[in-house]
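Minimal example, chain plus flavin mononucleotide.
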Amino acid sequence: MITKIVSKKFDIPESYKLEVAQKNGAYGSLKRLFTMTPDEVITEVDKSKLRGKGGGGALCGPKWRYMPTNDPRPAYLIVNADESEPGTFKDREVMDKDPHLLIEGIICSSYAMNIHTAYIYIRGEYKWLADRLNTAIDEAYEAGIIGETLMNGACDFKLDIVVHRGAGAYICGEKSALIESLEGKRGHPRLKPHQKECEWYFGNPATVNNVETIASVPHIIENGYEGYTQYGTEKSPGTMLFALSGPVKNPGVYELAYGLKMIDVINTLGGGMKEGKKLKAVIPGGVSCPILTREEAENAVLDYESMWDIGSTLGTGGMVIIDEDACMVEVAKNIIEFYHHESCGQCTPCREGTGWIDKILHDVVTQQGKLSDIQTISDVCNTLNGKTICVFAPAVADIIGSIVVKFKDEFEAYILGGQAISSKEL
Ligand SMILES: Cc1cc2nc3c(=O)[nH]c(=O)nc-3n(C[C@H](O)[C@H](O)[C@H](O)COP(=O)(O)O)c2cc1C
Ligand code: SF4
């Protein structure tokens, strides 16, 4: 069931060390990379249909083509290692177990876009991983893999890699807020232009990609796009690091080809539900996406198109499993507290809406709720859609709105009974 592309070296002891990594194939893609032109590299990635693994699922090849060519300004690659989405802990595995794969991916991607400086923006809480990355980067400099040339002069291409630690704000995972933060400013998302274009770092062209996206590139370069499209489905080729969390017997990160049934993954790799409990719901891609009921989860297929078809999304691949004992009112309260705290506050619907829903749910869980609150929460969710600078607010509407609609009976029972009611008691 597992397909190892990015996680190939995860089980090898001390694979984070250069010597061990190189014995196991690290930097193997560079031989072919140096025979290719930058344009050929982008074409290869384009044909692989590699999608961004940070949550949005944007195709990587077309995105790289937004970078201007023959532009005198320096260009930048910014690797998004903010990994703040609840239920998401896959990039951590890459940086912990195979930092040299990430460096190799940065080399391939920088070469493709004529970039000579790459930043890895890592969440502040991942201090030990920032240290691990810096050690690996130091090793790569000392071995002549990066620096003034690549692979000790095998390619006359200068590349520097710098790790930058964030300071604990969820919103700094949003690419434009991340760049603001990297520029030394408050991490506020920027207004987006109507036309698609690259990002801008101090007015210079930049591309932001997730850790796992970049770590997927060496396999594509080494094996050609067919080496990637042979896995997964026609429209969602390749693999993704799926994270399972919650009351399953074996939570963890598993690399899977797209197209598997969610329930099979939960029951086999996940080992099924703990203590023989019944599955109640799954939030499939970190918490910023619509929840699935048990029936929906039992039929769900883990690829982008299948998830969109059932009104949700694959997001970050972080599956949050919920069992029959959970009270969905309290699940919603827990989630809205997070969003209320993390809203950057620039947009009124988001700043006020997250606080308002938090207050209503506080009333409900403190026996002060009324039945009309259910409709009010849905109404507030409607004000969050399409009216804000970034998609943080629509994501709140997705998850909170879907919980309220799909588990309305639990909200009613809670309000009328004044206490948590699990689905068993309804
Ligand atoms: C509120 C918010 C938080 C985000 N957090 C992350 C994150 O922690 N890591 C990440 O890679 N992308 C995150 N994203 C998505 C990024 O904005 C961006 O789309 C992504 O880094 C692009 O890389 P990819 O195309 O390789 O996925 C977030 C987006 C939003 C709206
Ligand atoms: S939607 Fe929320 S998080 Fe995003 S910019 Fe507006 S206030 Fe900030």
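The pocket of flavin mononucleotide (ligand 1) is lined by residues 52-56, 58, 80, 82-85, 171, 173-175, 208-210, 213, 390-392 (CB under 6 Å). The longest strand covers residues 204-210.
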